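does this look right to u?? zinc ion version
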Amino acid sequence: MAPHWHEDLMIVPVTDPEKVTDLNALEFQNYGDRHPAQWTEFLKVDSELADGDMFEAIAPYQVEPGEHSPEFPNVVAEVLGRSHVGAPLPYVHRPKMPPPDYLAFYLPFHYYHPDWWGVYLLYEGIFWLAGQILARSNNRVAVRRAFDAARLFLYYHEALHHKTECFAIQLELTHRKAFFKTGFERYYQRTLGSDDCLEEGLGNTSAQRDSWDKLSDQKVDSALAQYIDQSPPGYSQDNAYRSRFLRVRCGFAEDN
Ligand SMILES: [Zn+2]
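got this back:
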């Protein structure tokens, strides 16, 4: 790994990736109807916040519904483009939707301990997915809610890759063998890009489930279901896995 990959990126720590904005506590509930000039009132209120929170406070109000594809800095895919689960992926399945691992990524501790391991959500990625949620709900989701939903979905998707790594290390501790960098990675690479890739399907299923648990928002849920449905092979398995999540997850553990 090149030591300076992060210098081309601005990294903002997220204090609570599972945070949900209480829409009732905000003065305007439907931002979709508001002109940008009216947002400044909010930004002033939020200006007391710390850097990371400030970033989150401003970003949601820039989201617009849209279909255009996001373009990301190549440095991410080129420098970090390794073969482990959760690695940032190029967007090659157009006109299918870009996968969550193009909009966010996970750096496993097996490779990136102690400095860089963890979940990374690309600003453009959250932004783009939030725009999709707005467009697919015909703007019936508040902008702030769409932003929260996009952040939650991408975070939970990458968290599934972290759980896979945690499962691997449990086996490694008892068997004293390097499973994660060998068998787990080979299995992932062999199936990636096809419907046999249980990991990505499970990632989307658990992300949709966990987002529902946080938001219980029917309009968000059906927008996410549409996005998943139009995703590349493997990623689009959500609807098939949703009713038998535990069974598929057990099968995935056995396969690994
Ligand atoms: Zn993934």
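The chain has one domain: 5-85+96-255. idk if thats expected tbh
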